[in-house]
Amino acid sequence: MKKYIVAFAAIALTGCVSNKPEVKWISVKNTDEFTDASSCRVTVGSYYTNKNVYTEVGKYYPFIEQINGQLRVGLQSGGKYKIPVGNAQLRIDSNKTWDISTSETPLDLMPTLADIKPAYIDSLSDEQKTMITTSYKSAMELSAQAMSPFTATTGKKAKKIIKEMLAGNSFKYRTIGLNQAASSTGVYGLDMSLKNALTDCGIEL
User: Fold this and answer.
1) pTM of the model
2) CA Rg value for the chain
3) Backbone φ, ψ for residue 56 (5° rounding)
4) Ramachandran region of residue 49, left (φ > 0), alpha (ψ -120 to 50) or beta?
5) Distance from CA of residue 77 to its chain's centroid?
6) Strand partners of residue 75
7) For 143-169, what is each residue's pLDDT tens digit?
8) How far is CA 137 from the centre of its chain?
9) 3-state SS record for the chain
10) What is the pLDDT of residues 37-81, one digit of tens each?
C-alpha cells in the first residue's frame, strides 16, 4: 500500500511542476482614481492567474514603460512592501553590460520626501538662503533616488536596451549593494511575449 501512495505522490508532484505557469512578459494597465491619468507598463511576475500577476517582496523585476512620450527601462521592487533597488546592471545575452545608476531614475518614480528646511535658514542672507535651499533640494532628490523602489534609464539608452531585448534570448540583472551580500541577481527569458506586451501598451521604437 505504501508503494502506491509514494507513486501517487510522485505523479501529483510531477503534475504540479509541469503545470507551473511560465514566466511571460505582460502589459499592466493602470488608471489613477483621482487624476484619471492612465499608464501601461510591460513587466514580468513570479505567479500568474487568469486575471492577475503577482510579485514577491525582496525580488526585482524588469519593466518598460512610456509616459508622456518618455521611454524608460529598468528594475522595480516586487511585493506589497517595496525596497530600494539601488544601482543596477543589465545584460542581454552576451552583449555589453548596461550600468544604470539611481541618478538616472525619472523624478516621478521616486518616493516623496518631506520638504523640511534647515532650522537656521531664516537667519541667513537672501544669497545664502538661495545657495542653501538649492543644495538642500539636490541632496533630498539624491536621497529619494537612492531610496526609490525603481531604478530606470530613459531616452536613447533605454531604446538601445529594449532593442537588444527584442533581439535577445536572456535578460540578466544585478543590483549593486554596498557589499557582495547586499547584491541581488536574476535571469528572465526573452520571447515573443515581450513584443506582444509592448504592442499592447502602444510602445513603439
Assistant:
1) 0.74
2) 22
3) -115, 145
4) beta
5) 6
6) 62, 151
7) 666 778 999 999 999 999 999 999 999
8) 25
9) CHHHHHHHHHHHHHHHHHCCCCCCCEEEEEECCCCCCEEEEEECCCEECCCCEECCCCCEEEEEEEECCEEEEEEEECCCCCCCCCEEEEEECCCCCEEECHHHCCHHHCCCCCCCCCHHHHHCCHHHHHHHHHHHHHHHHHHHHHHCCEEEEEHHHHHHHHHHHHHCCEEEEEEECCCHHHCEEEEEECCHHHHHHHHHCCCCC
10) 778 899 999 988 876 788 999 899 999 999 888 899 999 999 988
Grid cell digits, residue 110:
521616486
Cα torsion through 13, 14, 17, 20, rounded to 10: -100
Name the grid cell of 121.
Answer: 535658514
Q: Which three cell numbers stand for residue 179?
A: 557589499
CA distances from 119 to 53, 85, 134, 135, 137 (A): 46, 32, 15, 15, 15
Look up residue 156 and give its three cell numbers.
536613447
Q: How many CA atoms lie within 13 A of 27 on its CB side?
A: 17
Position 113: which residue type? L
